[in-house]
Amino acid sequence: MTNPAERLVDLLDLERIELDIFRGRSPDESLQRVFGGQVAGQALVAAGRTTDGQRPVHSLHAYFLRPGRPGVPIVYQVERIRDGRSFTTRRVVAIQQGRTIFNLTASFHSAEPGIEQQLPMPDVPGPEGLPTLADEVRTHLGTLPEAFARMERRQPFDIRYVERLRWTDEELKGAEPRSAVWMRAVGPLGDDPLVHTCALTYASDMMLLDAVRVPVEPLWGPRGFDMASLDHAMWFHRPFRTDEWFLYEQESPVATGGRGLARGRIYDRAGRLLVSVVQEGLFRPLRPAEGTADDG
């Protein structure tokens, strides 16, 4: 398969090796550690596969405990916490080479009527007139580096920043800890709602911590910090398709003590609030003599 969207669907298609035990692939890529969104998305697939499929996910809460090794399969063990009249709860532990690297609790809820209200979507330009991320890089550098081109060919999402990227320290002056992007899968993801939910979970971890970095350093280029996701929470408010455009608005209310907190809101083109996201990340200044954030 050459389509990155198809590869994402395949990545989320776990192998069942026992009643509540699944195995997921971890691509052998030139990464320091397994991408956290991959582990979260696969864990949510495992949780969903142990339900009757009639109740959509309404929330998840997760902790990243250890870095995963690229190229090594990950085993997901599911515990059936509760099957109630309206809610279903599952706990998932992700294990790699005998060590727990991640855990997740997910709750599923039967659809029911209720009050309808939300904060409005910010007034931003639509995605069609915005440059792609590759175009932004070409404009700044005059060419597209091969390493970035390889990443772009593997990227399962079309990403378009609402505001022009800042590339210099001068451009960072006065920047608020906010960011916003339009995103969608680069190809169709099928009609299984669980696949769309897990694909969005994958995407939600891609750039949420950017909001913490905006006032400090350019989002693309050499990094001055080693970053690692610590925990991740999502609330799913309405049905959606991840292969249609959605706006991912992010902000960081605080960064202190080597950690940064980021909040995200995901809207569809009609302005409906689909998902709320919160994540905390570890931020350590890079020093040649020190290890990485994974040492913690």
TrEMBL record:
It comes from the Bacteria. Residues 153-282 form the Acyl-CoA thioesterase 2 C-terminal domain. The keyword Hydrolase applies. Residues 33-109 form the Acyl-CoA thioesterase-like N-terminal HotDog domain. Keywords: Hydrolase. Gene3D superfamilies: Acyl-CoA thioesterase, double hotdog domain. Pfam families: 4HBT_3, Acyl_CoA_thio. Belongs to the C/M/P thioester hydrolase family. This is Acyl-CoA thioesterase II.
